[in-house]
Every structure is written in structure tokens, then in C-alpha cells.
């Protein structure tokens, strides 16, 4: 499919250049081709590296007993079998189709499942092939290398796709129907998510007073009656209807207009609609039964999560104890006492606990007040700015994790006066332990108040898993290394 590439926007919303450039393929198609090539290359490289590494590894004491002479042709046979299995399995799991899950968690899970299933089937296949003998050591080496290489190539292709789209090579243009708060929020999210490959052509809205005006650097191009004209002028191929609170008759009219113009559409729900957040449908004999899903980890996964919290916090406190002592001394010498800042926060099931941090604000600052949102906030000390930027001020919370008040990953614990104003949906944050880090902390909205972006926490509660926790921890580590902590 041939699409039109547009140059990216300046900060003031104007385009660099209106002239079209016609790429040979869409970015999505290019990514799929490169993913398939990368998977094949990972298989070949894994066996090639294993054939070179294994003779070296068997020279070490303890591994030498596993040394065996494996005919070189066996590596080729096994590589061919693996490649023939991995491609179809990955294809059946949608791994050659674009997926846009949060932090790519769904893609990572599917890669792990596909890798494991391929390994099992490969064992069965090579067991029946005469020229496929391998030792257990070689087998483990190959499949470990393959997993690492699969993730490496996949991540490289993923970053290439983002690189191309950030430079204006978008797959398709869309219109947003509804220039209200939901539409503006959707536009901001799409603009900072270049991996979607979507370019916003503008807004449609039924409010005639908005026609010709600019909303979030995008023009309101007309209303529903102008849909056909706007679609032809902009080249948009899809419409996102961002009117979650509109009445049924209006919504049906918009849907019918999209159908008359043969234009695909998607409905954007309210981020805080409890029904859409928790509804689940069970089909019994063709009869759909609608119920409410209660999110949460199973007892076994909860035990694993707690074990990880205990092990990681205890280990971190042990190895970071010299750092903690140095920071405490530095705060005492530069800013005086107290060294630690403690505050009542609300945890799981509404239970209050005392949370600890290194003090980063002046002693005369109010204990319960909104957190700084600007690096020029006069309440923050000079040393405190460094501690907050590097997130070193959060280290004492490892003690809260060890005690069981908090987890490594979870919604950020809020102050009691803010929790008192929660509505029923917002109180869902109290269904899990609060965390040192979470989705909000690694999101582009971290500079704004936590309670203004409750959807991150609701998403985490509904989709929490050990893999999601690990992805958030890795993302947090990356942000800390780059110095993107709090203000």
C-alpha cells in the first residue's frame, strides 16, 4: 500500500513542507518484513554462535565432562527445523502484525510464549531426525542465545519504526470527531506515541462556533455534514469518535455518516468509565452474559510478587547501605536535620502508614501540600534538587517495602486529604499495595499530579502481572540513569 509521507510539525504546529513523498511501503509493512528477517537471522546466529562458543565453554572445569564431538551438519539440521517452526508459530501469535500494548508488554509475552512453544516442538522434531543429535549443554546454549537475539532484533526494529515515524513517515491520517476534552486528550496521546503510525489531519465537531479554530495545534475542519468533503481534502482514512458522553441518537447519526462514506471508525470510551474498565462478557450457548471483572493477582502470583519485593528490597538495602550513609551525612551537613522526611500516606484497603524519604525540602515547608511540579520551586533545597532528579530520595522507601507497607511497583501512595475526595472509581487504587514506582512514573504525564491521571493506575490494576512489574522496573531504571526523576 502506497501512502503519503508528511514532514513533521514545528513546535508551533505548522508543517515544514507540504510536498508529498511516496515511500515504497508503509512503515508497518517494513517493520513486519524486518521482524521476519530478524527472527530468521536470530535462529542462524544462535546456532552459529553456539557452535563456536560450546568448544570454548567445555574447557572450563565442571563443564568439560559435557564435551562431545557434534558433527557440524547437525547444527544446520537443527537450525532449519527451528526456523521452520518458529516462523509459523510467531505468525499464529500475531507477532508479524503491529501491536501497540502499553510498554510492549503483550508483545514480550507473546515472544516468550512463541519461543517456549518452538523449543518444545523442536525437541520433539529433532528427536525423530537422525542427523540432529545435540548435547543438553549445546541445546541450552542455543535456546538462551536465541531468546536474547530475538529480543535484541525485535527491539532494534521497533526503534527503527519509531525513528521513521518521528520523521514524518506515517502510515495513515485520521480525523478526530469531537474537539472536547476527550478529543484533545486523545490527540496529545497520539502525538507523543509515534509508534502508532497515525497522523492527525484535524478535528470534526458539531459545534459550528469551533469551525476554523485551532485546538491543540489541530484545526476544526467542519462538522458531520462536512465529513465527505473533509475526508477528500485531508486524505484521512479513518475517524476516531471521541464523544464518550454523547447521547445515543447523536452517536448513531455519526456512525451512519461514517458508513455512508465507507470510512472505518473507532469509538473512544471515557477513560474513567467503570463499566468499560471492568466489564467482561461470557458467551453460553449463544447468549452473552455481562458481568463485572474484579481485577487482582492470584494467591500464587501474589506470593511471588511479595517474594520478589522481600528479596529485592533486602538485597538493595544491604548493598546500598554505604550510599544511604553518605547521603544521610551529606543532608545533615548541608541542610541540617532532620535527615529523613516522613509522612502519613494511604495504602492498600485504605490503611494508613508512615512513608519515609530523604528530606529534599526546607524544614518550614508544609508537611501535607502538593508536590513540586517545577524545578524552580523555592521549597526544594539545592541538594534536594539533585536527590529528586536522580530519585535517590526514594531509597528509604525500600524499608517500607521490606515492612510490607509498599511494593516495588504499584500506584503511588497518596496523602489522606486527597484520598478523602476520591470517587468510587478512584478508590480502586486502594485495591493493591502502593509502589515506589509505577506506570504513572514512567509515563509522559509524570510532571502532572497523580490524581489527574488515574487511568494509568486503573490500567495497572486490571493488567498487573510479574512481567509488567519487571518492564516498569526496567523503564524506571532507564529514567533514573537519564536523570529524569521528579522535580
Topology (elements, then pairings):
Blueprint: H1 27-57, H2 72-92, H3 105-127, H4 136-166, E1 172-177, H5 181-191, E2 198-204, E3 214-215, E4 218-219, H6 227-234, E5 238-241, H7 248-260, E6 265-267, H8 274-278, E7 279-284, E8 287-292, H9 299-335, E9 340-346, E10 352-358, H10 382-390, H11 397-403, E11 407-409, H12 416-419, E12 435-437, H13 454-463, H14 466-481
Parallel strand pairs: 1-2, 1-5, 5-6, 11-12
Antiparallel strand pairs: 3-4, 7-8, 9-10
Any overview of this molecule?
27% of the residues are buried. The strands form 5 sheets. This protein has a 4-stranded parallel beta sheet, with helices on both faces. The longest helix is centred in the middle third of the chain and has 37 residues. Strand 9 and strand 10 form a beta hairpin. By secondary structure, it is an alpha/beta fold. The protein is built from 14 helices and 12 strands. It has 3 domains: 140 residues, no CATH class; 99 residues, NAD(P)-binding Rossmann-like Domain (Rossmann fold, 3-Layer(aba) Sandwich); 183 residues, no CATH class. Helix 3 packs antiparallel against helix 4.
Task: Please describe the structure with a list of short key phrases separated by commas or semicolons.
46% helix, disordered N terminus, 487 residues, alpha/beta, 3 domains, 14 helices, Rossmann fold, two-stranded antiparallel ribbon, four-stranded parallel beta sheet, 12 strands
What is the number of E strands?
A: 12
Strand content: 5-15%
Q: Provide the spatial order of strands within the biggest beta sheet.
A: 2-1-5-6
Largest sheet: 4 strands, parallel
Give unreliable regions as ranges.
Answer: 1-22
Q: Determine the fraction of residues in helical runs and give it as a percent range.
A: 40-55%
Quick check: average pLDDT? Answer: 81
Number of spatially distinct domains: 3
> Nearest-angstrom radius of gyration?
27 Å
Secondary-structure element order, as H and E? Answer: HHHHEHEEEHEHEHEEHEEHHEHEHH
Shape: globular
Return the structural class.
alpha/beta
Counting H and I runs of at least 4 residues, what is the number of helices?
A: 14
Q: Give the end-to-end Cα distance, rounded to a whole number of Å.
A: 46 Å
